[in-house]
User: What shape does this take?
Amino acid sequence: MAPNARVPLPERGFDWPVAIDGRTWSAQATDHVLSLDGDGDWLAVANDQLALHDGPFTVEARFRAESFEKRVGLVNKTESAEFGIFLNAGVPSFIVHLGDRYATVEAGAAASARAWHHVAGVFDGKELRLYVDGKLTARKAASGSRTRNALPLLVGADVDGKGLGTSEFTGAIDEVRISSIARYAGEVVEPRAHHEPDDSTVLLLPMDVALGAMTLDLSRQRAHARIRGDAVLAPSTSR
Assistant: This one.
């Protein structure tokens, strides 16, 4: 090759993550959602990373289901313990294992498929509340200590005794947040489309950034979720 020869090279872009103000972002951290096909796909947060102590807490997420099976897990750490949000036949429900049994609240109607919804389960130490699209749909008196297990938290499935996913969700999930307080009270609330972490945030998965086989948790815990199967972060549709 001659000393002054020029050889054109194909252009390649690199999505290089950068740490800014204690967070890690990427050039493509715009607005994405977790896309799941219901066949071996979910996110997993290790038990030792999820620092949710006993007492009041809130679990919430946005979802857009392509369809609903008879039993569908959305955000779960169940298996005769802990808590979960289900969408069985499209009907949202929130369960918490207190003492020796589950306390359950269930919405009175199914959520529509192919539309974005927000669901939140709240335990304030005295009762369970379930909110769907900002409206209180069910409440039930409940108290006691939450039964623990050592299983991972799964997003997009229920969890079995081996820590694997069952009753998988098909569609898109966004803005999964777990808080160590009862975030919502009253008959009507206004959930935000995007959340910012605060002192009560235990887990916040905005689904906007993937680093290898992980998607970022923006809480102080940095409990980054492992991507399992063919789950991908895809550009969001209108919410």
About this structure: Confidence is low (pLDDT under 50) at residues 11-16, 20-28.
